[in-house]
Amino acid sequence: MSTVRIIGDSLPNMPWQEKPEGAAGPVWRHAANPVIGRNPVKGIARIFNSAVVPFEGQYIGVFRAETINGRPHLHLGRSQDGLKWTIEEERIPLTNEQGEPFHPNYAYDPRLVKVEDTYYIIWCTDFYGAAIGVAKTTDFKTFVRLENPFLPFNRNGVLFPRKIDGNFVMLSRPSDSGHTPFGDVFLSESPDFVYWGKHRHVMSKGGQGWWQSVKIGGGPAPIETSEGWLMFYHGVTGTCNGLVYSMGAVILDKDEPSKVKYRSSTYVLTPEEWYEERGFVANVIFPCATLTDADTGRIAIYYGAADTYVGVAYTTVQDIVDYVKATHEEVGDDAGLGIM
Ligand code: BMA
User: Fold this and answer.
1) Is 184 close to ligand 1, i.e. is its CB under 6 Å away?
2) Low-confidence ranges of the chain (pLDDT < 50)
3) pLDDT at 340
4) CATH number of the domain at 42-327, please?
5) Which residues contact 240 (CB under 8 A, 6 or more apart)?
6) Is 36 helix (H, G, I), strand (E, B) or coil?
7) What is each CA distance from 17 to 28, 86, 169, 299, 313, in whole angstroms?
8) What is the pLDDT of residues 289-322, one digit of tens each?
9) Which of 80, 107, 116, 333 sits most deeply, having the most CB atoms within 10 A of its CB?
């Protein structure tokens, strides 16, 4: 019997496949992955680490598009079913708040989150090095870039889908300027999306799970459930052959989301399929978005695979919450408020 509920909208036409017999873990892959292959659009070599939302009965996405000159930019895509995508050839026409064109040097790993009636794009931008960029739209025609919320260096900006206690809440992962060999997840609040503060530590890397021993970073926008905020994230380990990115899951306190309630000691998805193990960067699973249906508890997770493809995976809120509780491990002082 289902006891855990998603607190959100119904989405009966979201992509879905039932759990196959003998699935190894609580998350299973879409059988026809990858849903976006190489060279999907003229001038774009690879699309991965991207975000989607339901919009006007269809789906719209902000995609990390690696152009054929090697730079990542953000491109819009549309889909009837959330699986077959039409991606625009031109990058998203961002403007600044005065309405003038604004072109970030590079833009990658977007998240796309609706708060009230506005859609926010949060990405990794160039601000004297890697930092968090933000923009907003209500119609997916005009996109206004807002002030950068945080100082460099920082990545993996993840906005909560509603205000908590009247404030916007954003996770981020402070880091270094390169392929950062460290990183924990922090949380910041803002009353106006301009001034950010009340910074809290949320989660450390590590614990018994060596799959997340090097660094971690937030994933899709947290999903509100009757047990708290469910968040998928990436955890990274080092090997003699380079880094390996897996997906983990955590449940944060509903009212004080800097507190970890349950955190899975094991990954919930790790590179196993050819499109995850082989590509521009081998062995990467990097989740950036989910679609959910509150009526059935279904969750579809969009993830970048091997910095080359987009994959979709599924779970239900009951499956994943049960799994996270059953494999829970407390890491350091993560269960506290995160104020030193
Ligand atoms: C991280 C980010 C991600 C990428 C991952 C693996 O530092 O740059 O965009 O998927 O490395 O290359």
Assistant:
1) no
2) none
3) 80
4) 2.115.10.20
5) none
6) strand
7) 9, 22, 32, 10, 9
8) 999 999 999 999 999 999 999 999 999 999 999 9
9) 107
